Amino acid sequence: MNRKSYFHLLLNAAIIFSLFIGTDAWCGITGKIRGRAVDAGTESGLPGVNIMITEVWKGDTPVKIDRQLGAATDISGDYFIIDVPPGIYSVAARMMGYSAVIHTRVKVNIDLSTIVNFRLSESVLDLGGEVVVVADRDIVKMNVTTSQIAISENILTATPANNRLENILFVQPGFDASDPVEGKFTIRGGSQIQTTFMVDGMPTFDEKLNEPYMNINQSAIKEIQTITGGFDAEYGNARSGVINIVTKEGVSSRYSGSINYRYMPPQKKHFGPDAYGEDTWEWKTFTGPLSYYPLADSTLKFPGWIELVEEYKENNDGDPDNDIFPEDAEELFKWRHRPIEYANRPDQDMDVSLSGPLPLRYVPGIGKYFENTSFFAAYKFEDMMFVYPFTRDHYWDENSILKFTTRLSPDMKLTVQGMYGELSSVVRTHSFDKAERDFMHGILTSVALGESEKYDTYYLPTIDRWRSTMGFNFKHTLSPKLFYEIIFNRMYTKYWVDNGRERDFSPVVRIGNNWYNESPRGYYNVNDDKDQPGIYNLSTDGGRNYDRSHSETVTLKGNLEWQYFKFSGMKAGFEFVYNDFLEKRGYKNTKWRDNREYRIFPKRFSGYIQNLFEFEGLIANIGMRLDYFDPAFMAIDTYTNPFALYLEQHEIYLRYNDNIIPKVETEKQLRLAPRIGVSHPLSESTKLFFNYGHFYQVPESEKLYTTTWDIVSEFADYISNPNTEMLKTVQMEVGFAQNLFNQIEIYCAGYYKDMRNEPSTVYYVNADNINIHFTTWRNNAYEDIRGFELRLQKHYGDWFTGWFTYDYRQAVKPDMLPLDPYLREAGAEVITNDPNLIDPEEGLGSPFPNVSSTPTKFRAGLDFHTPPETGPQWTGFHPLGSLMFNFFYTFQEGGEFTWNPERKPGVYNNMKWIAYQNVDLRFSKLFPKLGPVTTEFYMDVTNLMNFRYLQTGSFLGPKDWENYLYSLTPEEHRQVGVWENKDFPERGAHRRFLNPRRYYFGLRLYF
Q1: CB-facing half-sphere around the CA of 625: CA atoms within 13 A
Q2: Which of 228, 723, 971, 1002 lies at a C-alpha separation of 20 to 30 Å from 169?
């Protein structure tokens, strides 16, 4: 989509909004304030006290709120205020005959109750006096019944090397970066696809890929809530965690905005020599006087240019006009290995936002209709060079948010918002099943591109992705105790995967008697097209991806919240999800698997009810969820007879819609999921908590709908199983939290996850016709995960704050591959209709579980900051004031593996990688305001200590890797990754170590 279309989208969003118009939050993204007002003298409850939220704090500035939020105390002096957006507020208590009391900097988080108590003193005359109290620090949140963290805006801006949301998540307990290059993560051992992700209550989750869309503008984020333990019944289609983001809204009383720009000068993102210069191994080896004669290294089998040209067909066709001489062959080698300029552009990203009253309010005649309307708009882009040049040499990602909020009446609020993003990158692999997932950005692992493809820079396909969401939320407050909301959202994603620019075969350079084209530039698919020494590919050998798919998800949600008693509240709601999946992708090269194309319309429905009890010594959250799933698909009948002969013929498959192949209607699934969470305050500073729940999730669409046929044999190859059952996890957690010295939070939790109905691959072989064989899925696997988490955190401090986390996890899952070495090569359990062909017991997976433990891991952060007026003053400026140093440290013990080339009995996990550690730093300086504008300069330093870690992908093959392992001394066998004093081949040296120290310079302005 071009830039003009991009701005047309924003304009259309505004038009849609104007059709709706005549909203602080959505269910699951608001909090609650409750407490008691008492007479300071008698400590008895005061009825009829007016409790009002008067201001919201924007940094150090209080701003009057747009709407009235408040309540009156009951006969016992108790009160509650529901539907409070997350933020920091001033809360006032006023009553005739008493001095007003105002609590400032009261922090409200998503889904939590904040307790604010008032002690009012009698006043003889009401002269407007008031008592201002800074709110108590809520170190341990007593009403939290699970492991959850609220990440506020100030944490986002202070985290080193943070320009993507996942960088914030990676440092949270329970999160692991399974692939930091791609921004993929796990939560307590559960993959990213087991997570639900929402922005303002709207799901931004690709239902086709089962993956969240996380590239949200950070300038738009008000708070992030992460839940890694058992979550409430209102959250569904997830088994490991919930990530809930609340974005900012404009206020109708003032404009505000921000600009955050970050720049990294051009720099190579690897240690070692230039990858493509004239000093590389290949130029040293195959150019110059010595290259005309056989190499001393006989393993290369290069006879030298003099002998090599004698075999050229041009020198044996009887035509002297096209002969190639040794000097010509050398020049041709130089041409086809000509230096490539890379790492020659800076990395940069920018995030801007603007919010405030809608300008239409100032237009005469119509302005009165927009007096209660505000907007928030944000735009970001990210432009990052790859480590090495590919079909594209950089990653580009942009995203925008446009949000309108209006009050139709004091009790009704409407929010309309849209989000649009474009991505351009390259696809890491040409895997037939998940191409659109594996796009690359940032620091690319060295295994992403093999050394033999070094000069075939068009080896990887390109990917373009367009993604948009559009929705609205209508909220109606029926009374101070009751409100409901209706949420509608549409998310659309389109993919375009293709080859890069085709090779131009026009002659461009003359060497000796012959003209040559631009090879190896441009995409060209041919077998065994290598350079003269036979080392580097000059073109691509194999099929390439194409993808023209799209997915559309429409969600309708309704929620009701009723605080029917001061210590008890109920939530209930429903959700309907309708999907439109068009799958149209595969290979262009016909020697690979067939293309696949289908369009299906699966749908889900769910309902939930939960009740929160908040008593002084017990907080309990009890709920039940119902999930219904309809795959809406007529499946090929592999159930009645998985060895049927009709699976042989590709032509029959092409006539699938003519009902020649038997089909069966897929089963509709209905599940009930109970959930309970309990928090037991032991004192004002200590609590125990426990939660238990059942969680269900729809399987990936690949496992439900994709069917492929082998082009060469025309037999079924992979047949999906739409009757794959919903995946189930039973999870429980026990935890403890304590407030130490009103400064430090101590949190620890143990958890257990029983993951059932996990899909495993099954390989069917027809003994009557061995050509009939295909792979499918069935719910035959399981995994048990148990772990422990510890977090120490100093939340507040005039000079420093910090945190420390420790994670330990153990997983148990069976080996689902056959024990027989030959059958294991199938990569799946093997089932046949003839036990004489394959023993049923030999074809099935091992019943013995594999136990694996995560290496010891801990992370720590230290924030050192100076108060604004620290040190000497110079013309009203404190050079040493408002300085901040943020350090982030990671340590992970090296993993173990088995290396037993001599097949000695009893050898297991005899090798261990060296430990990984890393330090990142952010330094920032906040300058005094210049008018309304605050300026902050910062510098991020990644890999501050310039640690180097050996990349296994840099080895040139199994023999190279084996030679390295043999070189380790007995003392080093448990220190795999040691590289000092080791003799590595010069070839591939640029891929041996990645991610050197890098410097980013940033400037942030906000008002």
Answers
A1: 22
A2: 1002
Cα(925)–Cα(940) distance, integer angstroms: 12
Token pair recorded at residue 609? 């009810």
Within 8 A by CB and 6+ apart from 622, the residues are 610, 611, 613, 675, 676, 677
- Residue 33 burial (CB count, 10 A): 24
311 close to 329: Cβ distance less than 8 angstroms? no
Q: Is the pLDDT of residue 183 over 70?
A: no
Query: What amino acid occupies position 900?
Result: N
* Whole-number Å distance between alpha carbons of 29 and 225: 9
Q: State the Cα–Cα distance between residues 757 and 851, nearest whole angstrom.
A: 19
Q: How far apart are CA 31 and CA 20, in angstroms?
A: 27
Total Cβ atoms within 10 A of residue 189 = 24
Q: Give the position of tokens 């373009």.
A: 464
How far apart CA 195 and CA 215 sit, in angstroms, is 15
How far apart are alpha carbons 330 and 333 in whole angstroms?
Answer: 5
716, 707 in Cβ contact below 8 A? Answer: yes
The answer to whether the CB of 91 falls within 8 A of the CB of 103 is yes
Structure tokens at 845: 């997976």
Contact 976, 967 (CB under 8 A): no
At position 720, the amino acid (one-letter code) is S
Do the beta carbons of residue 807 and residue 857 sit within 8 Å? yes
Amino acid letter, 43: E
Nearest to 707 by CA among 604, 835, 600, 793: 600
Burial of 776 (0-12, 13-18, 19+ CB in 10 A): buried
Burial group, residue 657, by CB count within 10 angstroms (0-12, 13-18, 19+): exposed
- As a 3-state breakdown, the chain gives helix, strand, coil percent values, each rounded to 5, of 15, 45, 40
End-to-end CA separation in angstroms for the chain: 32
205-235 residue pLDDT tens: 888 777 778 888 888 888 888 888 888 899 9
Which residue, 101, 15, 113, 121, is CA-closest to 50?
101
Asked if 850 and 814 touch (Cβ cutoff 8 Å), the reply is yes
- Give the whole-angstrom CA distance, residue 262 versus residue 382: 10
Asked whether the beta carbons of 723 and 636 are under 8 A apart, the reply is no
Using DSSP's 3-state secondary structure scheme, residue 825 falls into coil
Angstrom distance (rounded) from CA 47 to CA 69: 18
pLDDT tens, 466-494?
999 999 999 998 988 889 999 999 999 99
Q: Are strands 744-765 and 829-832 parallel, antiparallel or unpaired?
A: parallel
pLDDT of residue 733: 95
Tell me what the pLDDT averaged over the chain comes to: 83
857-865/596-600 β-pairing: unpaired
* 821 phi, psi to nearest 5 deg: -60, -35
Largest Cα span, the chain: 120
- Count Cβ atoms below 10 Å from residue 961 Cβ, excluding itself: 14
The per-residue DSSP string of 966-991 comes to HHS-GGGTT-BT--TT----STTGGG
How much of the chain, in percent, has pLDDT values that exceed 70? 89
Q: Which residues contact 868 (CB under 8 A, 6 or more apart)?
A: 878, 881, 882, 926
Helix (H) or strand (E) holding 165: helix 165-169
The structure's pTM equals 0.85
Residues 19-72 pLDDT 10s: 333 333 334 577 888 888 888 888 888 888 888 888 888 777 788 877 778 888
pLDDT in tens, 523-546: 988 877 899 998 999 988 766 778
- SS3 of 464-523: the string is EEEEEEEEEEEEEEEECCEEEEEEEEEEEEEEEEECCCECCCCCCEEECCEEECCCCCCE
Task: For residue 578, report the phi and psi dihedrals to the nearest 5 degrees.
Answer: -120, 125
pLDDT digits (tens, 9 = 90+) for 459-471: 888 889 999 999 9
Element housing 842 (H / E): helix 840-843
Q: What angle do CA 28, 31, 37 make, to 5 degrees?
A: 155
